[in-house]
Design goal:
The complex is a heterodimer of chains A (484) and B (247). By secondary structure, chain A is of the alpha+beta class. Chain A folds into 2 domains: 40-186, Immunoglobulin-like (Sandwich); 217-424 and 470-480, Orthogonal Bundle (MetI-like fold). Chain A has 13 helices and 11 strands. In chain A, the strands form 2 sheets. In chain A, strands 3, 6, 7, 9, 10 and 11 form a 6-stranded antiparallel β-sheet that branches. In chain A, strands 1-2-8-4-5 form a 5-stranded antiparallel β-sheet, with no helix packed on it. In chain A, strand 6 and strand 7 (128-133) form a beta hairpin. In chain A, helix 4 (209-215) packs across helix 12 and helix 9 (328-336) runs antiparallel to helix 10. Chain A is elongated, with a radius of gyration of 35 Å. In chain B, 38% of the residues lie in helices and 26% in strands. In chain B, helix 3 crosses helix 4, helix 3 packs parallel to helix 5 and helix 5 runs parallel beside helix 6. In chain B, a hairpin with a 2-residue loop joins strand 4 (61-66) and strand 5 (69-70). Chain B contains 9 helices and 10 strands. Chain B has helices spanning 46-53, 78-84, 100-110, 116-129, 145-157, 175-190, 202-208, 226-231, 236-246; strands at residues 6-17, 20-31, 35-39, 61-66, 69-70, 85-88, 163-167, 195-198, 211-216, 219-225. A 6-stranded mixed β-sheet of chain B has the order 6-7-8-3-9-10, with helices on both faces. Classes of the chains: A alpha+beta (484), B alpha/beta (247). Bound molecules: adenosine-5'-triphosphate and magnesium ion.
Chain lengths: 484, 247
C-alpha cells in the first residue's frame, strides 16, 4: 500500500463517513479463525506483527509464524508438514516445537501452562517445511510450533497455508483447518522508513535521545500514512458536525431571546449545562452511559452527535452576542417599514450578525476540530488514537508529533484567516471615513445664512449627550429584565 | 386646514415608562397634506410621541385614530399600519449589508409583495427624487451622512406612505450636510406629503411648517400656525424657547 492508495482508501472512508455509515476500523487482525477438523483443531495461527504501527504483518519483512493446535487423534503425532504460500522464504533456524502441558493447572489459564520443548529434526523442500519429532508426543497433546525468519511476499494478501500431520501408525492426515494470514503489502512509507533507518545520518540523528524520541525519522515516515487515516476521520467528524451545529446554535439563540419564558428557560438550561461541563465528561456519559441503557450507536455516529450538540451551545452564545450587538435602530427601522419580527430577524438582523461573527465562528471551528482528539478516550479512531497505538508499539513519541502536524495543518491557516477577516473589517472602516471626507466636496447646497448653521450645531451636540444616557438607561433596563 | 381629511387623531394620549410619565394627555389632529412641526426641549417626549404614532411604543392610555381607525385597540394589524406610515430616524438606520437600492427595495418586496422588477423601478424613481439615483449601488458605509439620510427618506417614500414621521432627521449630520436633507424634506412638503417633523431647525419650521406644536413636559404648550407661532407666541414658555434660539 503506497501513499496514493493510502489516500484513496482514506478518501473512500471519508465518503462512507459522509454518508453517515459507521466506519469499520481499518485494522484487521491477522488471526485466523479456529475451525475444528478431524486430525487436530487449530487454536491459533498467526504471524507476529512487524510493522512500525505494531498492528500489521507486512510482506518483505521478517516475521515469525505461530501455530498452536490441539491434537485429537487416536494415535500419537510424530511430525508434520507445513506448506508455505508461494513466494515466502523461511529457514529451519530457531524453529521450535513446544508441548504445552496443562496438568495441574485450571483450564483457560494459558499463562500457567508448562512448556516442554520437543526435540525435532527439520527438513525443507521448496515450500514444504517438515518436522519429525524425536520425543514421544501423546495423542491429545497441545502443541505450539514456531518458525522464525519468515519473509512473506512483498505484495501481501490473504495467504493460505496447507498442513498435514504424521501419525505413529504411519498415516498422514491432512489438516482441514483454515490456515490463513493476512499480510499487508510493504508500503512505500514502510520501505522508506526501513531505508532511512539504515542510513548513517539517521543513526547519528537517533543517537541523540531527544531527537530519537520526538523526531525519529523512520517512525515519522511510517506513522504518517497511519495517522493520516485518523486525520480524515477527524476532518469528516468536524465537517459533518459543524455545519449541523450552525442551525442548532441559531435555533438556541432565538430560543434564548424568545418572549416566552418557557422557551427561554429550555434554551438557557441546555446551553448552560453544555458549556458548564467539560466535553470530556459529556463524552464519558454518552459513550459509557448509552450502551448501559441499551442504546447502541456506532462510535463514529455518536462522536458526531456529541460534537454537534456541544458546538451548538457554543455557537448559540456566539450568535446571541452577535444579534445583540446589532443596534436597536436596525430592528426599529425594519419594523417601522412594516416588516414582521420574523422578516426583520431573517432579512435584516441575521445577515448582519453572520458577517460580524464569522471570525468567532471560525475560532469555534478550530476549537471543535481540536476537540475531536477527546474522542480518542472513548475509542473513536481519530488522529490521537492512531498516534497512540503506534506510540504504544514503538515506544517513540514521534507519532504524537505527526499528530500535532495534522492539527496544525488545519488550525494555522484558519487562524491566519481569522486575522485577515478581522483586519478586513478594520480596513473597511478606514475606507468609509475616506469616502466621507471626499464627499464633503460634493455638496452643492447653498448656505443661506450663518446663524442657521449655528442653530443646528448646538442642539445636535446636546442631543448627542442625551442619546448616550438614554441608551445606557435602556441597556440597564434590558439587563434588569434579563436577570429578573 | 380643518376642512381637510384627518390622517391622525390623538385623543388624551398618555405614555409612561414605569414611574416616568413622558406624555401627559396629548390631543392633536394631523390633516392630509399638513406639515406639523413639533418643537420642544430635550426630553419633553417628542420622539416618544412619534413612536406612539406608528406603535413602536405601546400607549399607556388614550386613543390614536389613523384614518378613522382606532390603532390602540387590540387586534390591530401593526405591520399594515406601519407600511402606511414612513419613519425617518436621526441615525438614518440604513441596513448596512444592503446597497442603497436594496435598502429601498426590501420592504416593498417583503411587505407590499411587489415583484422584484416593480420594486426596483419604484426604488430608482424614489432615489431619483432624493437625488441619490447615481449612488444606487453604494453601500451605506460608502455614503456621507446626508446621502444616507436621503436614501432613508427614499426608503420611506417607496412604501407610498400616507404620512412620514421625521425624528430629528438632520441632528446627526455635520452642519454642511444638513441642507441637502432639509432641501429634500422641503420639496416633499411642497409635493403635498403629510409630514410630522421633530426638529431643531427653526428656519425650516418657519419656512415649511404649516402647524407648529411646542411640547413641554409631555403636554402641548402651544399649537399655532407657523406665522402665529413665530411672530406672536402666546405662552411664556414658547417665548423663552424661541428666545433661546434667537440668541
Ligand atoms: N424606552 C424608554 N424607557 C424609559 N424611558 C424612556 C424610554 N424612551 C424615552 N424615555 C424617557 O422619556 C423621556 C422623553 O424621551 P423622548 O426621547 O421622547 O424625548 P425627546 O423629546 O425626543 O428628547 P430629545 O430632544 O432629546 O430627542 C426622557 O426622559 C427619556 O429618558
Ligand atoms: Mg428625540
Amino acid at each position: 500500500m503506497g501513499y496514493a492508495s493510502a489516500i484513496k482508501s482514506a478518501l473512500f472512508k471519508l465518503i462512507l463517513v459522509l454518508l453517515a455509515i459507521a466506519l469499520a476500523s481499518g485494522i484487521f487482525g491477522s488471526y485466523a479463525s479456529c475451525f475444528v477438523a478431524e486430525a487436530l483443531s487449530t487454536q491459533r495461527f498467526s504471524a507476529r506483527p512487524n510493522s512500525d504501527n505494531g498492528n500489521d504483518v507486512l510482506g518483505g519483512e521478517k516475521t515469525r509464524i505461530n501455530w498452536e493446535f490441539q491434537a485429537n487423534e487416536s494415535a500419537p503425532i510424530t511430525g508434520f508438514t507445513l506448506v508455505f504460500p508461494e513466494g515466502t522464504t523461511f529457514n529451519e533456524e530457531d524453529a521450535s516445537v513446544t508441548l504445552m502441558d496443562d496438568s495441574g493447572t485450571t483450564p483457560g489459564e494459558n499463562d500457567h501452562l508448562k512448556r516442554v520443548p520437543i526435540q525435532t529434526v527439520y527438513s525443507i523442500d521448496n515450500l514444504d517445511f517438515s518436522a519429525k519429532f524425536l520425543n514421544e508426543v501423546s495423542a491429545d497433546a497441545y502443541l505450539e510450533i514456531r518458525v522464525q525468519n519468515v519473509i512473506f511476499p512483498q505484495n501481501g494478501g490473504e495467504l493460505m497455508f496447507k498442513a498435514s500431520v504424521n501419525l505413529a501408525n504411519g498415516d498422514i492426515v491432512e489438516v482441514r483447518d483454515l490456515l490463513q494470514i493476512n499480510v499487508k503489502s510493504f508500503s512505500f512509507a514502510d520501505k522508506l522508513a526501513k531505508d532511512l533507518s539504515e542510513q548513517d545520518w539517521v543513526k547519528a540523528w537517533n543517537s541523540n535521545d531527544f531527537l530519537r524520541l520526538f523526531f525519529n525519522p523512520p517512525v515519522l515516515v511510517s506513522s504518517f500514512p497511519v495517522v493520516m487515516q485518523g486525520f480524515f476521520t477527524a476532518l469528516a467528524l468536524v465537517l459533518c458536525a459543524y455545519p449541523c451545529a450552525i442551525p442548532l446554535g441559531l435555533l438556541l439563540a432565538l430560543m434564548r431571546m424568545s418572549k416566552l419564558r418557557l422557551i427561554r428557560a429550555i434554551g438557557s438550561i441546555y446551553v448552560n449545562i453544555i458549556r458548564g461541563t467539560p466535553f470530556f465528561l459529556q463524552l464519558y456519559v454518552a459513550f459509557f452511559g448509552l450502551p448501559l441503557a441499551g442504546v447502541q450507536i456506532p462510535s463514529f455516529i455518536l462522536g458526531f452527535i456529541m460534537l454537534f450538540l456541544n458546538s451548538g451551545a457554543y455557537l448559540c452564545e456566539i450568535f446571541r452576542a452577535g444579534i445583540q450587538s446589532i443596534p436597536d435602530g436596525q430592528t426599529e427601522a425594519s419594523r417601522s417599514l412594516g416588516m414582521s419580527s420574523f422578516q426583520t430577524m431573517f432579512f435584516i438582523i441575521i445577515p448582519q450578525t453572520i458577517r460580524r461573527v464569522i471570525p468567532t465562528m471560525t475560532n469555534e471551528f478550530i476549537l471543535l476540530y481540536k476537540d475531536t482528539s477527546l474522542l480518542a478516550a472513548v475509542g473513536v479512531m481519530e488522529v490521537v488514537m492512531y498516534a497512540k497505538t503506534i506510540v504504544a508499539s514503538t515506544g517513540s513519541i514521534t507519532p504524537y508529533i505527526v499528530a500535532a502536524f495534522f492539527y496544525l495543518i488545519i488550525t494555522i491557516p484558519l487562524a491566519s484567516l481569522v486575522g485577515v477577516l478581522e483586519r478586513k473589517l478594520d480596513v473597511s472602516k478606514a475606507a468609509n471615513n475616506q469616502v466621507n471626507v471626499l464627499d464633503e466636496n460634493d455638496i452643492s447646497v447653498n448656505v443661506k445664512d450663518e446663524s442657521d448653521i449655528d442653530g443646528s450645531i448646538a442642539p445636535s451636540i446636546a442631543l448627542g449627550q442625551t442619546q448616550v444616557t438614554l441608551q445606557e438607561d435602556k441597556n440597564l433596563q434590558n439587563d434588569g429584565a434579563k436577570n429578573g | 386646514m380643518d376642512n381637510k381629511e384627518v390622517i391622525y387623531q390623538t385623543v388624551d394620549l398618555h405614555k409612561s415608562f414605569g414611574e416616568l410619565n413622558v406624555l401627559n394627555g396629548i390631543d392633536l389632529d394631523i390633516h392630509k397634506g399638513e406639515v406639523v412641526v413639533i418643537l420642544g426641549p430635550s426630553g419633553c417626549g417628542k420622539s416618544t410621541y412619534l413612536r406612539c404614532l406608528n406603535l413602536l411604543e405601546n400607549v399607556t392610555s388614550g386613543k390614536i385614530y389613523f384614518e378613522g381607525n382606532d390603532i390602540t385597540s387590540k387586534g390591530v394589524n401593526v405591520n399594515k399600519l406601519r407600511s402606511k406610515v414612513g419613519m425617518v430616524f436621526q441615525q438614518f438606520n440604513l441596513f448596512p449589508h444592503m446597497n442603497a437600492l436594496k435598502n429601498v427595495m426590501v420592504a416593498q418586496q417583503r411587505v407590499l409583495k411587489r415583484s422584484k422588477e416593480e420594486a426596483k423601478e419604484n426604488a430608482l424613481r424614489n432615489l431619483d427624487v432624493v437625488g441619490m439615483k447615481g449612488r444606487a449601488n453604494y453601500l451605506p458605509s460608502q455614503l456621507s451622512g446626508g446621502q444616507q439620510q436621503r436614501v432613508a427618506i427614499a426608503r420611506a417614500l417607496a412604501m407610498d406612505p400616507h404620512v412620514i414621521l421625521f425624528d430629528e432627521a438632520t441632528s446627526a449630520l455635520d452642519p454642511e450636510l444638513v441642507r441637502e436633507v432639509l432641501q429634500v424634506m422641503k420639496e416633499l412638503a411642497q409635493s403635498g406629503m403629510t409630514m410630522v417633523v421633530v426638529t431643531h431647525e427653526m428656519q425650516f419650521a418657519r419656512d415649511v411648517g404649516d402647524t407648529i406644536v411646542l411640547l413641554n413636559d409631555g403636554k402641548i404648550e402651544e399649537k399655532a400656525s407657523a406665522y402665529e407661532f413665530f411672530n406672536n407666541p402666546k405662552s411664556q414658555i414658547t417665548k423663552d424657547f424661541l428666545g433661546h434660539y434667537s440668541e
